[in-house]
Amino acid sequence: MKAQNWDKQDVQFLANLALPVRKLAAAMKQGKGARIGQSTVVSQKVHTFNPLTPQFIHILQDVDAGQTFYQQTAAGRVYHMDIFHQQGLIDHHLVAAALKRAADVYQFQFSLSSIVFAENGSRGVNTDYIDIQTGTGGGRVTGALTYGKKLSLRKAHENHVHFAAMFEAQHQAFLFYAVLAIEAVILSNHLELRRNERLIHIKGKQEKPEMADYTDETDSFMQRNSSGFGQKLSPAVKQHKLVQDALELADHFDTIQDAQQFMNKLHSPNKSKFMQDLEDDGERQRLLDRLTGMGIVKAGQRSLELTVYGQELEQYLKEHFLEIEAHLRKSFRAIKPLSRQAGKNKIQCCRYEWNTGVAAWQKNNDQKDGELAVADTVALAARRMVIDQQPEFQINDEDISYFAREKVSKAELCVLIDTSASMTGARWRAAKFLVRYLLLSTPDRVGVITFQENYANITVPLTRDYREVENCLRTIKPAGATPLALGIKTCLDYLTNTRTHNPLLLLISDGLPTLADQSRDPVADALAAARAIKQQGYGFTCIGLKPHHSYLTQLAELAGGSAYMLEELEKQLLVQAAWEQRLKLV
Questions:
Q1: Is 172 inside a domain boundary?
Q2: CA distance 267 to 278
Q3: How many angstroms separate the CA atoms of 439 and 332, rounded?
Q4: Could you tell me how far CA 150 lies from the centroid of its own chain?
């Protein structure tokens, strides 16, 4: 691999990595290690070697790096590299600085070469999730770099630089940038790179890693809990961990209040009834796997109790409820649907025309003048320079961009949700997730109508009040039959008697109607009710499961709308379908 220009504005360097990256991805998928150049070993496993023969590297295929180093619950999340060099000390501050620069260069080249970067909300490589260790120390590259000072730990890294990072698989090319950056630091210290003669893959329990020399206090954001291998978390990392685990609990239980309610029940003297309720809800195993993996609870045969960390997290939830809720709202707003047009801000980038010698900007459209969009202008010029292979960077008239405020288009989103018995669990959580997302990511008023058994209810009138929506949604428990016709009629009656603008009905259901309204045929009743939607001129979208494609498509056609058929009612898929339909309406 040619290293020249990797740190320049040369998008071709990234393109040339396509084949090596494919080979690397194949090795990762097989649970194996690979070499980058001659000095670096990379895998998602733990590496070991005999100090007397460091050229022979053992890849422990059954020992995941993330689970071992950071107590991650899932395997295959952390990339582990060792870059070997002549015995000597490498300043870890220099390595950290080089890696941050490498990440910036990679992000820039990737953004130029791939439109996917702009469209899919990819976070790229977050340097907060890169840790290093050398013979002088280590830690998170964006941290204070005052960790990894234990003598045995520093001694163990006098012949190699340890690198661990967590990012999406699509960014595996960054590993090549990281290697080149670290190798440059090593060579600048007048130390030679050391060749790896052989990678030895070991399966099963043939070899267990000895971690005593590798444990010390850490500021890593990848650390899941402090129970493994004697790791201790710094105050800053502990704070970060509490926040992240609180957000994860909210995702699992649906709300922070539900998580707190669950923890309170663990203090109840009547735990047997609580455990039976978990069994009846069908959530017990999923719940226990998640919470024990997070180090929050200890589970026995018929008992469940909070760990010391679980008690600490419970107290944190009580003291920082509003802060965590703010984090949750921010995370909803950060979600980016996959559509090219999705997620655009009301400030949109438009174009200027540059006339030499004229003090004022001249527009090439009818929009009002706005503020110069410096970042967009530079990005357009940089892309053109790469495409045209120009030797120098310069800004031309076609690059000039400015900001202009667009008029915000609003709608009234009425979410009609099937809350029959089959919608319990993950499906109901996904439906509520969609409601929260629409409320927090659009300027629209959002209302919720639910239907189950033999009634339909205006659960949430059209509103922008997040607290009201949360409180109302928490009162609903899916149960009973599916009176779809009654749900549609209730929704139409509400909209008819409410002042609305651009109303859109979003129907979410996992099955067919099972309870009739006017006749003895629930299917025919629902189709008849759907015709009234078209007559009223309301927008309509039905989101359901593929096995019911024929019926739901017919329902949507009669309502004058569209249908989205999904394999499962998952959060991101619901968001995508709802967002696309809203764009058509506004």
A1: yes
A2: 15
A3: 9
A4: 34
If asked whether residues 215 and 114 sit together in one domain, one would say yes
* Residue 520, phi then psi, degrees to nearest 5: -100, 5
On whether both 185 and 264 belong to a single domain, the answer is no
Q: What's the total number of domains in the chain? A: 4
Is 184 within 8 Å of 76 (Cβ atoms)?
no
- Let me know: does 527 contact 554? Beta carbons within 8 Å: yes
Q: Please check whether residue 254 is in contact with residue 424, taking contact to mean a CB–CB distance below 8 angstroms.
A: no
Q: At 563, which CATH number?
A: 3.40.50.410
Task: Please say which residue of 208, 231, 254 terminates a domain.
Answer: 231
Q: Which domain does 361 fall in, by range?
A: 347-405
pTM attached to this predicted model: 0.58
My answer on whether 469 and 560 are in the same domain is yes
Three-state DSSP class for residue 373: coil
Question: Long-range contact list for 535-540, CB < 8 A, 24+ apart?
Answer: 536/492, 536/495, 536/496, 538/492, 538/495, 538/503, 538/504, 538/505, 539/411, 539/502, 539/503, 539/504, 539/505, 539/581, 539/584, 539/585, 540/504, 540/505, 540/507
Query: 297-299 and 304-306 as β-strands: parallel, antiparallel, unpaired?
Result: antiparallel
What is the distance between the alpha carbons of residues 304 and 326, in angstroms, rounded to a whole number? 30
Give the Cα-Cα-Cα angle 87, 90, 92 (nearest 5 degrees).
Answer: 145
Task: Indicate whether 306 belongs to any domain.
Answer: yes
Q: pLDDT tens for the chain, 586 residues: list them.
A: 445 556 655 667 888 898 999 999 999 999 999 999 999 999 999 998 887 788 899 999 988 898 888 888 888 999 999 999 999 999 999 999 999 999 999 988 887 765 433 333 445 799 999 999 999 999 999 988 988 888 878 888 999 999 999 999 999 999 999 999 999 999 999 999 999 889 999 986 545 455 555 666 778 888 775 444 445 556 766 776 788 788 878 877 878 888 888 888 888 776 666 666 665 555 666 677 678 767 788 877 667 788 888 999 999 999 999 888 888 888 777 665 644 433 333 334 444 333 333 323 434 444 445 677 788 788 888 888 777 777 888 888 888 877 766 555 688 999 999 999 999 888 999 999 999 999 998 889 999 999 999 999 999 999 999 989 999 998 999 999 999 999 999 999 999 999 988 899 999 999 899 998 878 899 999 999 999 999 999 999 999 999 999 999 999 999 999 999 998 898 878 888 888 888 877 6
Q: Where are the beta strands (DSSP E) in 208-313?
A: 297-299, 304-306
Q: Are 10 and 109 in contact (CB under 8 A)?
A: yes
Report yes or no on 253 lying in a domain.
Answer: yes
